[in-house]
Every structure is written in structure tokens, then in C-alpha cells.
Write a structure and sequence with these properties.
By secondary structure, the protein is an alpha+beta fold. The protein has seven helices and ten strands. Strand 7 and strand 8 form a beta hairpin. The two termini are 31 Å apart.
Length: 199
């Protein structure tokens, strides 16, 4: 169940206030008219960076993929690509808010490149030992999975505690995503905030 917790876009205009809402487990979404609300799901979907899974079939195909990973080189291009679909919750106002957070060092991208062309990727918000995944895209088969795999490897290496992926999908389930209660989620948040991680 998704619970609307905060209404309006005022929280987007102050990056510190926006970050404090993420730190509580809330995230913004815009409706088809661009109106922004913050949501606070009671059932959370997470992947533990130290307990993730790489699907066997994907492992076999990785060596045949002409993919290269880059981090934090094309933030705006990644976000724009994530909006390139029939319906999107990422409004222009939210993008502007992300740009302000990026200047503070709290927004990051993991990008899939092939032949010097951006073919997939994802982005999210970081706060101490937590990474709040926001969206991903793929222009060629397996590109978003590659970005997710590289994100998980990176978070594990940097000792992050939590990858919040918001909603369960079969794509995420294959990588070890699981649904937990808010109480369990909050416990992981508190643990992650004791970590001084640098993405």
C-alpha cells in the first residue's frame, strides 16, 4: 500500500529539506498534471548490497555484451532517458530539484555504455549508507540489468547497508529484492545512517 504523506512541491525547493524526507523513507512523484506528492509505502522493497543475486542466465550473457560502466558522467541524460516513456512521474520540477541535490553530492548515476553510446542506466539519491533508487532505463536488451549489477557491486564495495528500490518487479526480484515491513526498513535506515559512506 502506498500512503500519501506530504502534499505539494514546496519540499522540492529546499534540497536539505528534500534530503531529510528521503532520509525518513519518503519519495516524490508527480501526477499527469505535474502536481507533486510525497509517498511513504508501508511495505518496502529493498536489496541488501551484501546479499544480492546475479541471475545465472545473465552471468552467462555478460561476457558477450559490449558494455562499459561509467559513474556520474551524464546525470541529466540518464534522468531524461528515464522520462522517455508513455507515462512518467518525473516532472520538470522534480528534475530541477534533482539538479540541486546533485550539486550537494547526493544524486548519482550508474550508466551503461556501448560503442561510446549511452544505452542504459539508473540514478538514485544517497544518504550515508543508504541508496534510494529512483528509476532506470534501457535502450538495448540487458542494459538496465548491467547497470543494476554494477550498482550493487559498487554499493557492496563501499559498504552501503541499503538499496531501496521502492516497488517489487520481476526484474528486481531476480537480483535479490525482497519486501519487508516498515519496522524492518526503519531499522535498516538507522543502521545505514551510522555509516559514513562515500559513493
Amino acid at each position: 500500500m502506498i500512503t500519501q504523506e506530504f502534499s505539494g512541491a514546496d519540499f522540492l525547493r529546499d534540497p536539505e529539506q528534500m534530503l531529510s524526507l528521503y532520509a525518513r523513507g519518503a519519495f516524490p512523484m508527480a501526477d499527469e498534471d505535474g502536481a507533486v506528492d510525497w509517498y511513504f509505502p508501508k511495505i518496502r522493497t529493498i536489496i541488501s548490497p551484501d546479499k544480492y543475486n546475479i541471475p545465472r542466465s545473465f552471468r552467462k550473457s555478460i561476457s558477450q555484451l559490449n558494455f562499459e560502466v561509467r559513474i556520474d558522467t551524464q546525470f541529466l541524460s540518464v534522468v531524461r532517458a528515464c522520462t522517455d516513456r508513455s507515462e512518467t512521474w518525473i516532472s520538470e520540477e522534480i528534475i530541477e530539484a534533482y539538479l540541486r541535490l546533485e550539486k550537494l553530492g547526493h544524486v548519482h548515476t550508474v550508466e551503461t555504455w556501448s560503442n561510446n553510446y549511452l544505452v542504459g542506466g539508473l540514478y538514485g539519491i544517497t544518504y550515508h549508507g543508504a541508496f534510494f533508487g529512483e528509476s532506470m532505463f534501457s535502450r538495448v536488451s540487458q542494459a538496465s540489468k548491467f547497470a543494476l549489477m554494477k550498482l550493487l557491486e559498487h554499493l557492496n564495495e563501499k559498504k552501503f547497508i541499503l538499496l531501496d528500490v521502492q516497488f517489487m518487479t520481476e526484474h528486481l526480484r531476480m537480483f535479490g529484492a525482497k519486501e519487508i515491513t516498515f519496522e524492518e526498513y526503519n531499522s535498516l535506515l538507522q543502521k545505514s545512517y551510522n555509516q559514513d559512506c562515500r559513493f
